[in-house]
Each structure stands twice: as C-alpha cells, then as structure tokens.
Design a protein that fits this description.
This protein is 60% helix and 0% strand. It is mostly helical. The chain has a single domain, classed as Cytochrome Bc1 Complex, Chain D, domain 2, CATH 1.10.760.10. Helix 2 crosses helix 5 and helix 4 packs across helix 5. The N and C termini lie far apart (47 Å). It binds heme C.
C-alpha cells in the first residue's frame, strides 16, 4: 500500500512539473521557433553553435563579445550584412520577427 502511494505521488509530481513547464508558455514557444529556424538556416555552417567555415568565429558568448556582438540586434545585423563566407539573410529570407527569435535562441543557447 505504501508503495502505491509513492507511485501516485511520483505521477502527481511529474504531472505538476509538466504543468509548470507548459505554463511558461510563449517564451518556450519562441525559443523552440528560434531553434527550428536556426536548424533550417544556420546549422549547416554553425552546428552546435560552432563555425565550420571560420572556426575562429563560433556563436558562443565569448567569441560574439570579442566581435562586439552583444545583443539580438547585433546578431540580426550580422544576418543582414554578414562577414566573409556567410550567406546573407535579408528580410525576405528571414523576416525581422523570426530573425529576432533566431538571435535570442543563439544568445540563450550557446556558451
Ligand atoms: C554558409 C555558411 C554560413 C551560414 C549558412 C550561416 N553562417 Fe553565420 N557565419 C559564417 C561565417 C564564415 C562567419 C564568420 C564571418 C566573419 O568572418 O565575419 C559567420 C559569423 C556569424 C556570426 C558572428 C560570430 C562571431 O563570433 O563573431 C553570427 C552571429 C552568425 N554568423 C550568425 C548566423 C546566423 C543567425 C545564421 C542563420 C540565419 C548564420 N550565421 C548562417 C558562416 C555561415
């Protein structure tokens, strides 16, 4: 009997944590969308936030900072007007709203 109470408690705990996770709502959805866009447009050259074309310029915070990229706006600027070896992503390829989501995903994800 004790055992089944523990099982019920565990199930309730898992259920609760799912509830909390989904209650976070929009932020999570934005991050997910950013991730999808990143995989679609950027991951070929930046797998796991790296850089296969120019390994000196990965997407981790330190590298970005060294190149004065510190906010999502700076990342969007890079997409619109990239350095050598990177494809250009204009507003037709990735609209501003989506570009912001990709940028925020990068800032939140890669260390
Ligand atoms: C064709 C390969 C390629 C693709 C696709 C690509 N990049 Fe890049 N990316 C590069 C290269 C090469 C650089 C280094 C450019 C330079 O020397 O300034 C770079 C640099 C960057 C930097 C600056 C990194 C730093 O450490 O200074 C950011 C931010 C960035 N890319 C974001 C993106 C995003 C966001 C996407 C997708 C929308 C993307 N890239 C797609 C090749 C690519």
């Amino acid at each position: 009997m004790k055992h089944s109470i523990a099982v019920v408690a565990a199930v309730v705990a898992v259920g609760l944590s799912f509830g909390v996770a989904s209650a976070k709502g929009k932020g999570d959805k934005d991050l997910k969308r950013g991730e999808e866009l990143f995989k679609q447009h950027c991951a070929v050259c930046h797998p796991e936030g790296g850089n296969i074309v120019n390994p000196q310029k990965p997407l981790g915070k330190e590298s970005l900072k060294a190149n004065k990229i510190t906010s999502w706006k700076d990342i969007v600027k890079t997409m619109r007007n990239p350095g050598p070896g990177m494809s250009t992503f204009d507003a037709k390829a990735i609209p501003d709203k989506d570009a912001k989501l990709v940028a925020e995903y990068i800032l939140k994800t890669f260390k």
